[in-house]
Design goal:
This protein is α/β, with parallel strands linked by helices and 143 residues long. The protein has 5 helices and 5 strands; from the N terminus they run E-H-E-H-E-H-E-H-H-E.
């Protein structure tokens, strides 16, 4: 049965956490939706646990930075999980057995940033550097 609500506050207490999508819910890609940052701040202030789930191909940290840069408090969300983060972790933990990847970037450097992520040691494995041993993984970027 569908139940119309006028605010997330009407149902927030019924759940252990609220998981929000990033694009189309919090912001439109360049600006937050009206009242979104204030609503998130009020929910967090009322003790509700919040997380972001996104199909972004970038890792979690750049997405969390983007969200904060759009006016949301940096500590508003307990977690920011993206499809790019899941892929990176699956490769790092060898859930995915393939070792060569072809990255199509939106902007120059996106693949390198994704590969480096929060652990610079992974960049050494993913992107061959001059004089470095052969990488375990290889990312090819369309130029």
């Amino acid at each position: 049965m569908t139940h119309a609500i006028s605010s997330l506050f009407d149902i927030a207490s019924d759940y252990d956490a609220l998981v929000l999508d990033q694009w189309g819910v919090l912001h439109n890609g360049s600006a937050p939706y009206p009242q979104a940052a204030g609503t998130v701040k009020a929910l967090k202030g009322a003790g509700h646990r919040l997380a972001v789930l996104s199909n972004s191909g970038k890792r979690s940290a750049p997405n969390a930075a983007r969200i904060a840069g759009l006016g949301f408090e940096a500590d508003a969300f307990e977690a920011v999980m993206t499809s790019g983060e899941v892929l990176w972790r699956d490769i790092e933990h060898q859930v995915i057995q393939q070792r060569r990847f072809f990255a199509i970037e939106r902007s120059p450097g996106d693949a390198r940033q994704w590969a480096e992520g929060d652990a610079p040691g992974v960049l050494h494995q993913l992107c061959a550097k001059s004089g470095a041993p052969a990488p375990t993984y290889r990312i090819e970027v369309l130029k």
